[in-house]
Amino acid sequence: MDDTCPNIQLTDTVAIPCVGFGTYLIPDIEASALVNTAFGVGYRHVDTAEGYENESGVGEGIAVSMSEHELSREDVFVTTKLWPGNPEWGDPAKTKETTIASLLESLQRLQIDYVDLYLIHAPFCREQRLNQWRGLVELQQLGKARAVGVSNYSQAHIEEIRSAGLPIPCVNQIELHPWSQKPELVAYLDDNGITSIAYSSLVPLSTWRSKQGQESAKTSQMRAEGEAGRSPFSAMAEKYGVSEAQVLLRWAVQQKHPVLPKSNSRGRMQQNLDLFSFVIDDEDMRAIEKMDRGKSVAWPMGDPTESP
Predict the structure, then answer these.
(1) Which of these, 139, 196, 144, lies nearest to 167 by C-alpha position?
(2) Enzyme catalytic residues
């Protein structure tokens, strides 16, 4: 069986590695070493964001990795995201002009000339959403982003873009895991040639964001799987001879959804990258399909795809 990580085509000229290294909740001071470790074990995609406040550390890690591992810029796929602002939080909305300025500032922190994928982090700021998207389209035309997309957008948010006569995004990065499968949204994205990139793939694990300060909308009820406390993913992991995390990640990539696992452990980084030495069989895929619980839980204040 092929155990290499394939790329998934986003556009005619841009392909994304199906497993990327996620950096949410990694402090800036720790990002460089962890990104370098990730590239050392074989990752070729790193995902960050203006809102993560770790782009400088990620950029340093990319620079060190390219030197130590003899990688060219073309070997490295970099995603970052525009923080659009949210006036409801007292955070001014970005305009088209400040959207363009934001990526230029991100590029300085990342120490690179362009990103491979630039996303709007969430569909906040209804009055400025289209202007922000116009900014991304212009940034792609300027060569500052090879591909542009969105994150946490619903079908209605994307149709808003289409109705304005603007090119639709090639990507929607969404919370996607067996407890939040979003079948209608995923089907819509598939029908429109928009790649679903999955984040928070490991929500069903009891250890997901279990440390203090890692708030989410996940409840204690959702942490328990069955009266005996034994997760069905544990049984599947034993069946395939892998970890529970690998089962959850394999579920996504088996459906052609790139994933973005984060870990501080070199060993777990290697495990999370090893998703192609096994296949989840049809019976288990049908069992997982029945586990859908609906709404996303990663954001403490609720599911951003439901923004008006």
Answers:
(1) 139
(2) 52
